[in-house]
Model the fold of this input.
Amino acid sequence: MTARVLHSEPTIREIGLARTQLRNTQYQTILVCKPGMRINRRHRHTTGTEVLLGSCNPLRMSRVRVVLLCLCGMVALALTLGFYFSSNDASDDDSIHMDDNILFREPDLINDKLTHNPRRFTMAQIKRLAGQVNSGRLWYALLKPILVERLPGTRGSRRVRDHIYSHLEFLSAGWSLEIDSFNSPTPKGLISFSNLLAVLDPSAPRRLLLACHYDSKAMVSASKTPAGPLRRFLGASDAAVPCAMILELVTALDIQLKGQKQQKSQVTLQLVFFDGNEAFEQPSPSDSLYGSRYLADQMSRTPHPPGAQHTTMLNALDMFVLLDLIGGPDPMFVNHFDSTERWFDELIYAERRLHNLGLLSSHPREVSYFRKDITMGPVEDDHVPFLQQGVPVLHIITTPFPSFIHTLEDTAEHLHSPTIENLTKVLVIFFAEYLGL
Ligand SMILES: [Zn+2]
Done:
């Protein structure tokens, strides 16, 4: 996107020239500098803008009052034309940064996500980023502390939440962290739940949301032998591994995320670790998805940008990416939603490039995980409350489900470490390209 900048007192000739250039689509918008404001060098650099004047002076009404009345109508017309053209081509929006000193079009929360394009990495960049994934850290430092029973409102839940919180707090990117607690009636009475939210840059107009659930399912403990120790449900794939993968992803990309935050990009990353995904009895609309139902409701009531009349935090979400039931060998992921098909294609593309670079282990075929040749029905999960309110969803869940789902066998013994590492690399490339890191 290119823009023509006019100072606050454009002459008839300057406006006429700008309008001609608009018609020729040489420029797609016209910027008028606010009185007393300065157009900074960064903006000139990032947008390729031609700047007529480097700074603007307050209007001198006495000199130009009569002429200005005529010009107002022309400037308004030129701006309208500019916005019209700019709305038809927002493919380079991410290279343009909001600047308080420049009158520039507001982010379009409804349409910008539809025209967002990923950055394309070179092979060398892909190698470097994939090399930042550390499977030892993922397994021992990040996953192991989560492999405990973590029922909502219990000490196990609090410990796991503290583990996630303290790890994110330690990263240099500077995450804004929040534990959002609430009480909800359940078949077991009133239970306290806590979602853990992390936002890289809370001031960014748009967000790419990456989520999983950290609670484990309430199941009757059992022992293999009458005298043996009681075994509890640990939910290794459901969803301890997805939580650890998200932590590893933001750890591997820590430096790049820090840089992206400093650049004040249009899109930032938000993480959500949901509580209360699992039902206490048979899953039903009222007994399951406690945390995601609560957050979707909260976000739908929060105007965004602050003070907005018609848009909420849900509109800020480019996409809701949900990880679940990951960690077993030979997983298959299918595309569940037409609206995010092009982003599912990006997962396939990331897997293919990593394979061809020899960066995936125990990965015999170019495309083993993300399959478009197979169709499966949608799966009830934490995305549902967001999907119902129109948020685009990318659901990365193993289908068919692993054989050990919701059994005491969903433990570390049934996980496949190379697969977890491979999938984390795929996600690293996917998120880094989406966010333009
Ligand atoms: Zn489950």
